[in-house]
Amino acid sequence: xxxxxxxxxEKVDEIATEVGDANAVIALSGGVDxxxxxxxxYEAIGDQLTPVYVDTGLMRKGETEQLRETFxxxxxxxxxxxxxxxxxxxxxxxxxxxxRHAIGEQFIREFETVAREVDADYxxxxxxxxxxxxxxxxxxxxxxxxxxxxVVDFEGIVEPxxxxxxxxxxxxxxxxxxxxxxxxxxxxxxxxxxVRIIGEVTEEKLAVAREAxxxxxxxLEDHDPWQALAAVLGKATGVKGDNRVHGWVVxxxxxxxxxxxxxxxxxxxxxxLQRIQSRITGENENVARVLYDVTHKPxxxxxxx
Length: 305
Ligand code: XMP
Known about the structure:
The chain is of the alpha/beta class.
Protein backbone atom coordinates (compact mmCIF):
# COMPACT_ATOMS: atom_id res chain seq x y z
CA UNK A 1 0.00 0.00 0.00
CA UNK A 2 1.11 3.59 -0.42
CA UNK A 3 1.29 5.81 2.62
CA UNK A 4 -1.18 4.96 5.42
CA UNK A 5 -1.61 8.56 6.61
CA UNK A 6 -2.53 9.78 3.17
CA UNK A 7 -4.81 6.76 2.62
CA UNK A 8 -6.75 7.67 5.77
CA UNK A 9 -6.92 11.34 4.91
CA GLU A 10 -8.07 10.61 1.38
CA LYS A 11 -10.78 8.16 2.47
CA VAL A 12 -12.10 10.43 5.23
CA ASP A 13 -12.46 13.22 2.65
CA GLU A 14 -14.06 10.89 0.13
CA ILE A 15 -16.62 9.59 2.64
CA ALA A 16 -17.48 13.09 3.88
CA THR A 17 -18.01 14.31 0.32
CA GLU A 18 -20.04 11.33 -0.76
CA VAL A 19 -22.36 11.18 2.25
CA GLY A 20 -22.73 14.95 2.67
CA ASP A 21 -25.53 15.75 5.14
CA ALA A 22 -27.18 12.36 4.86
CA ASN A 23 -27.18 9.53 7.40
CA ALA A 24 -25.23 6.32 7.08
CA VAL A 25 -25.17 2.95 8.81
CA ILE A 26 -22.51 0.31 9.18
CA ALA A 27 -22.79 -3.22 10.49
CA LEU A 28 -20.08 -3.50 13.11
CA SER A 29 -18.95 -7.05 13.88
CA GLY A 30 -16.05 -6.37 16.20
CA GLY A 31 -13.62 -7.74 13.62
CA VAL A 32 -10.82 -5.64 12.25
CA ASP A 33 -12.47 -4.92 8.88
CA UNK A 34 -15.77 -3.49 10.01
CA UNK A 35 -14.15 -1.76 13.00
CA UNK A 36 -11.67 0.00 10.78
CA UNK A 37 -14.34 0.99 8.26
CA UNK A 38 -16.51 2.31 11.10
CA UNK A 39 -13.65 4.32 12.59
CA UNK A 40 -12.84 5.82 9.17
CA UNK A 41 -16.46 6.72 8.52
CA TYR A 42 -17.00 8.08 12.03
CA GLU A 43 -14.01 10.34 11.57
CA ALA A 44 -15.57 11.56 8.34
CA ILE A 45 -19.20 12.09 9.37
CA GLY A 46 -19.44 11.67 13.17
CA ASP A 47 -22.90 10.88 14.54
CA GLN A 48 -24.43 10.91 11.06
CA LEU A 49 -23.05 7.37 11.12
CA THR A 50 -24.95 4.78 13.15
CA PRO A 51 -22.75 1.75 13.77
CA VAL A 52 -25.00 -1.26 14.36
CA TYR A 53 -23.70 -4.23 16.28
CA VAL A 54 -26.00 -7.23 16.14
CA ASP A 55 -25.30 -9.64 18.97
CA THR A 56 -26.19 -12.84 17.12
CA GLY A 57 -25.21 -15.07 20.02
CA LEU A 58 -22.63 -16.56 17.64
CA MET A 59 -19.82 -14.26 18.76
CA ARG A 60 -16.59 -14.96 20.56
CA LYS A 61 -16.37 -14.94 24.33
CA GLY A 62 -16.49 -11.39 25.71
CA GLU A 63 -16.88 -9.87 22.24
CA THR A 64 -19.93 -7.73 22.96
CA GLU A 65 -18.43 -6.26 26.13
CA GLN A 66 -15.15 -5.54 24.34
CA LEU A 67 -16.92 -3.84 21.49
CA ARG A 68 -19.04 -1.72 23.80
CA GLU A 69 -15.87 -0.50 25.48
CA THR A 70 -13.88 0.17 22.32
CA PHE A 71 -16.62 2.11 20.56
CA UNK A 72 -17.95 3.85 23.61
CA UNK A 73 -16.82 7.16 22.07
CA UNK A 74 -19.39 6.78 19.28
CA UNK A 75 -22.62 8.13 20.79
CA UNK A 76 -24.65 6.73 17.93
CA UNK A 77 -23.58 3.08 18.50
CA UNK A 78 -26.54 0.64 18.57
CA UNK A 79 -26.27 -2.78 20.13
CA UNK A 80 -29.09 -5.14 19.13
CA UNK A 81 -29.61 -8.25 21.27
CA UNK A 82 -30.78 -10.89 18.81
CA UNK A 83 -29.45 -14.23 20.04
CA UNK A 84 -32.84 -15.88 20.47
CA UNK A 85 -34.01 -14.83 17.03
CA UNK A 86 -30.83 -16.22 15.44
CA UNK A 87 -31.11 -19.54 17.26
CA UNK A 88 -34.74 -19.81 16.14
CA UNK A 89 -33.74 -19.07 12.55
CA UNK A 90 -31.04 -21.76 12.70
CA UNK A 91 -33.16 -24.46 14.29
CA UNK A 92 -33.02 -27.73 12.37
CA UNK A 93 -30.62 -26.45 9.70
CA UNK A 94 -27.61 -28.67 8.98
CA UNK A 95 -26.50 -27.70 5.48
CA UNK A 96 -23.57 -25.22 5.59
CA UNK A 97 -24.82 -22.94 2.85
CA UNK A 98 -28.37 -22.94 4.22
CA UNK A 99 -26.94 -22.02 7.58
CA ARG A 100 -25.02 -19.08 6.13
CA HIS A 101 -28.14 -18.05 4.28
CA ALA A 102 -30.34 -18.16 7.40
CA ILE A 103 -27.81 -16.08 9.31
CA GLY A 104 -27.50 -13.60 6.45
CA GLU A 105 -31.28 -13.22 6.21
CA GLN A 106 -31.75 -12.72 9.92
CA PHE A 107 -28.89 -10.28 9.98
CA ILE A 108 -30.46 -8.25 7.20
CA ARG A 109 -33.75 -8.12 9.08
CA GLU A 110 -32.08 -6.84 12.24
CA PHE A 111 -29.98 -4.35 10.38
CA GLU A 112 -32.81 -3.12 8.20
CA THR A 113 -34.88 -2.28 11.24
CA VAL A 114 -32.21 0.12 12.51
CA ALA A 115 -31.42 1.52 9.04
CA ARG A 116 -35.10 2.46 8.63
CA GLU A 117 -35.28 3.95 12.11
CA VAL A 118 -32.34 6.27 11.54
CA ASP A 119 -33.39 7.04 7.99
CA ALA A 120 -30.06 6.00 6.48
CA ASP A 121 -29.28 6.75 2.85
CA TYR A 122 -25.80 5.27 2.84
CA UNK A 123 -24.39 1.93 3.77
CA UNK A 124 -20.75 1.72 4.80
CA UNK A 125 -19.14 -1.72 4.52
CA UNK A 126 -15.82 -3.13 5.62
CA UNK A 127 -15.46 -5.23 2.47
CA UNK A 128 -11.84 -5.96 1.60
CA UNK A 129 -10.24 -7.24 -1.58
CA UNK A 130 -10.21 -11.00 -0.78
CA UNK A 131 -13.95 -10.85 0.13
CA UNK A 132 -14.74 -9.59 -3.33
CA UNK A 133 -12.60 -12.21 -5.03
CA UNK A 134 -14.07 -15.11 -3.08
CA UNK A 135 -17.64 -13.91 -3.54
CA UNK A 136 -17.20 -13.51 -7.28
CA UNK A 137 -16.15 -17.14 -7.48
CA UNK A 138 -18.12 -20.02 -6.17
CA UNK A 139 -16.11 -20.65 -3.04
CA UNK A 140 -18.80 -19.67 -0.56
CA UNK A 141 -21.30 -16.94 0.12
CA UNK A 142 -19.81 -14.43 2.50
CA UNK A 143 -22.74 -12.88 4.24
CA UNK A 144 -21.09 -9.48 4.59
CA UNK A 145 -20.88 -9.05 0.83
CA UNK A 146 -23.74 -9.05 -1.56
CA UNK A 147 -26.81 -9.48 0.64
CA UNK A 148 -27.40 -6.19 2.42
CA UNK A 149 -27.65 -3.59 -0.35
CA UNK A 150 -30.48 -5.39 -2.19
CA VAL A 151 -32.82 -5.13 0.71
CA VAL A 152 -32.72 -1.61 2.06
CA ASP A 153 -32.95 0.93 -0.65
CA PHE A 154 -29.69 2.80 -0.06
CA GLU A 155 -28.66 5.71 -2.20
CA GLY A 156 -25.04 4.60 -2.05
CA ILE A 157 -22.68 1.98 -0.76
CA VAL A 158 -19.37 3.14 0.68
CA GLU A 159 -16.55 0.59 0.78
CA PRO A 160 -13.42 2.50 1.72
CA UNK A 161 -11.22 -0.61 2.00
CA UNK A 162 -12.38 -2.55 -1.03
CA UNK A 163 -8.87 -2.71 -2.52
CA UNK A 164 -6.96 -3.56 0.65
CA UNK A 165 -5.55 -6.82 1.91
CA UNK A 166 -5.89 -7.78 5.54
CA UNK A 167 -2.37 -6.70 6.54
CA UNK A 168 -3.01 -3.29 5.01
CA UNK A 169 -6.27 -2.99 6.95
CA UNK A 170 -4.32 -3.62 10.14
CA UNK A 171 -1.95 -0.79 9.26
CA UNK A 172 -4.92 1.54 8.79
CA UNK A 173 -6.43 0.33 12.09
CA UNK A 174 -3.20 1.16 13.92
CA UNK A 175 -3.07 4.54 12.24
CA UNK A 176 -6.59 5.24 13.55
CA UNK A 177 -5.50 4.21 17.06
CA UNK A 178 -7.89 1.31 17.18
CA UNK A 179 -6.94 -0.68 20.25
CA UNK A 180 -4.43 -3.45 19.70
CA UNK A 181 -7.09 -5.99 20.63
CA UNK A 182 -8.97 -4.99 17.47
CA UNK A 183 -6.09 -4.05 15.19
CA UNK A 184 -4.18 -7.24 15.87
CA UNK A 185 -7.15 -9.50 16.32
CA UNK A 186 -7.42 -12.63 14.24
CA UNK A 187 -10.02 -12.57 11.50
CA UNK A 188 -13.40 -13.90 12.56
CA UNK A 189 -16.06 -14.91 10.04
CA UNK A 190 -19.32 -12.99 9.73
CA UNK A 191 -21.46 -16.06 10.53
CA UNK A 192 -19.39 -16.46 13.68
CA UNK A 193 -19.20 -19.69 15.60
CA UNK A 194 -21.93 -21.19 13.39
CA VAL A 195 -19.29 -22.09 10.78
CA ARG A 196 -17.24 -23.75 13.52
CA ILE A 197 -20.05 -26.13 14.38
CA ILE A 198 -20.76 -29.06 12.09
CA GLY A 199 -24.48 -29.65 11.71
CA GLU A 200 -27.23 -27.94 13.65
CA VAL A 201 -26.32 -24.97 15.85
CA THR A 202 -27.56 -25.53 19.39
CA GLU A 203 -26.95 -23.67 22.63
CA GLU A 204 -24.94 -26.59 23.95
CA LYS A 205 -22.60 -26.76 20.94
CA LEU A 206 -22.29 -22.98 20.95
CA ALA A 207 -21.18 -22.99 24.57
CA VAL A 208 -18.54 -25.64 23.82
CA ALA A 209 -17.35 -23.78 20.72
CA ARG A 210 -17.15 -20.45 22.53
CA GLU A 211 -15.06 -21.77 25.41
CA ALA A 212 -12.80 -23.88 23.16
CA UNK A 213 -12.17 -20.94 20.81
CA UNK A 214 -11.24 -18.82 23.78
CA UNK A 215 -8.73 -21.41 25.02
CA UNK A 216 -7.19 -21.70 21.55
CA UNK A 217 -6.87 -17.93 21.11
CA UNK A 218 -5.22 -17.51 24.49
CA UNK A 219 -2.91 -20.52 24.32
CA LEU A 220 -1.72 -19.86 20.77
CA GLU A 221 -1.23 -16.12 21.12
CA ASP A 222 2.56 -16.53 21.41
CA HIS A 223 2.63 -18.58 18.22
CA ASP A 224 1.24 -15.60 16.37
CA PRO A 225 -0.99 -17.53 13.96
CA TRP A 226 -2.82 -15.72 11.19
CA GLN A 227 -5.95 -17.44 12.46
CA ALA A 228 -6.53 -20.06 15.14
CA LEU A 229 -9.83 -21.65 16.01
CA ALA A 230 -11.70 -24.58 17.46
CA ALA A 231 -14.60 -26.37 15.82
CA VAL A 232 -17.19 -28.75 17.25
CA LEU A 233 -17.34 -31.75 14.93
CA GLY A 234 -19.67 -34.33 16.42
CA LYS A 235 -19.70 -36.87 19.21
CA ALA A 236 -17.43 -39.78 20.13
CA THR A 237 -16.82 -42.03 23.09
CA GLY A 238 -14.52 -41.04 25.93
CA VAL A 239 -13.93 -41.78 29.61
CA LYS A 240 -14.48 -39.19 32.29
CA GLY A 241 -13.88 -40.26 35.88
CA ASP A 242 -15.20 -43.81 36.06
CA ASN A 243 -17.73 -43.38 33.28
CA ARG A 244 -17.77 -43.86 29.56
CA VAL A 245 -19.24 -40.75 28.01
CA HIS A 246 -20.45 -39.79 24.58
CA GLY A 247 -18.86 -36.37 24.34
CA TRP A 248 -18.06 -33.70 21.78
CA VAL A 249 -15.08 -33.94 19.44
CA VAL A 250 -13.34 -30.60 19.11
CA UNK A 251 -10.90 -29.85 16.31
CA UNK A 252 -8.18 -27.25 16.85
CA UNK A 253 -6.84 -25.41 13.82
CA UNK A 254 -4.06 -22.86 13.56
CA UNK A 255 -2.90 -21.47 10.24
CA UNK A 256 -0.41 -19.11 8.69
CA UNK A 257 -1.59 -17.02 5.77
CA UNK A 258 -1.31 -13.62 4.13
CA UNK A 259 -4.88 -13.08 3.10
CA UNK A 260 -6.85 -16.22 3.90
CA UNK A 261 -7.03 -17.28 0.27
CA UNK A 262 -4.44 -19.99 0.88
CA UNK A 263 -3.10 -21.09 4.24
CA UNK A 264 -0.65 -23.47 5.85
CA UNK A 265 -1.42 -25.48 8.96
CA UNK A 266 0.91 -24.26 11.68
CA UNK A 267 3.58 -26.49 13.17
CA UNK A 268 2.53 -26.19 16.81
CA UNK A 269 4.65 -27.97 19.43
CA UNK A 270 3.30 -31.00 21.26
CA UNK A 271 3.45 -29.39 24.69
CA UNK A 272 1.22 -26.50 23.60
CA LEU A 273 -1.19 -28.89 21.89
CA GLN A 274 -1.38 -31.00 25.02
CA ARG A 275 -2.06 -27.93 27.16
CA ILE A 276 -4.88 -26.94 24.83
CA GLN A 277 -6.28 -30.48 24.91
CA SER A 278 -6.13 -30.62 28.66
CA ARG A 279 -7.83 -27.26 29.12
CA ILE A 280 -10.59 -27.94 26.61
CA THR A 281 -11.44 -31.39 27.96
CA GLY A 282 -10.95 -30.24 31.57
CA GLU A 283 -13.04 -27.09 31.35
CA ASN A 284 -15.89 -28.63 29.32
CA GLU A 285 -17.29 -31.76 30.86
CA ASN A 286 -19.02 -32.68 27.60
CA VAL A 287 -15.86 -32.75 25.47
CA ALA A 288 -14.36 -36.21 24.99
CA ARG A 289 -11.61 -35.58 22.42
CA VAL A 290 -9.47 -32.84 20.94
CA LEU A 291 -7.88 -33.23 17.48
CA TYR A 292 -5.31 -31.04 15.73
CA ASP A 293 -5.98 -30.24 12.08
CA VAL A 294 -2.83 -30.57 9.92
CA THR A 295 -4.50 -29.76 6.58
CA HIS A 296 -3.41 -26.80 4.47
CA LYS A 297 -5.78 -24.65 2.37
CA PRO A 298 -6.18 -26.03 -0.24
CA UNK A 299 -7.41 -28.73 0.02
CA UNK A 300 -9.25 -27.71 3.22
CA UNK A 301 -10.76 -24.31 3.90
CA UNK A 302 -9.82 -22.44 7.06
CA UNK A 303 -13.29 -22.64 8.59
CA UNK A 304 -15.19 -25.93 8.88
CA UNK A 305 -18.32 -24.95 7.00
P1 XMP B 1 -12.26 -20.15 4.40
O1 XMP B 1 -12.95 -20.93 5.46
O2 XMP B 1 -13.10 -19.97 3.17
O3 XMP B 1 -12.05 -18.72 5.01
O4 XMP B 1 -10.89 -20.68 4.06
C1 XMP B 1 -11.20 -17.72 4.48
C2 XMP B 1 -11.28 -16.53 5.42
O5 XMP B 1 -12.58 -15.97 5.37
C3 XMP B 1 -13.22 -16.06 6.62
N1 XMP B 1 -14.60 -16.48 6.37
C4 XMP B 1 -15.65 -15.66 6.37
N2 XMP B 1 -15.74 -14.35 6.62
N3 XMP B 1 -18.05 -14.45 6.24
C5 XMP B 1 -16.95 -13.75 6.57
O6 XMP B 1 -17.06 -12.56 6.84
C6 XMP B 1 -18.04 -15.77 5.97
O7 XMP B 1 -19.06 -16.39 5.67
C7 XMP B 1 -16.76 -16.40 6.04
N4 XMP B 1 -16.35 -17.66 5.84
C8 XMP B 1 -15.02 -17.70 6.04
C9 XMP B 1 -12.45 -17.10 7.41
O8 XMP B 1 -12.56 -16.90 8.81
C10 XMP B 1 -11.06 -16.89 6.89
O9 XMP B 1 -10.44 -15.80 7.52
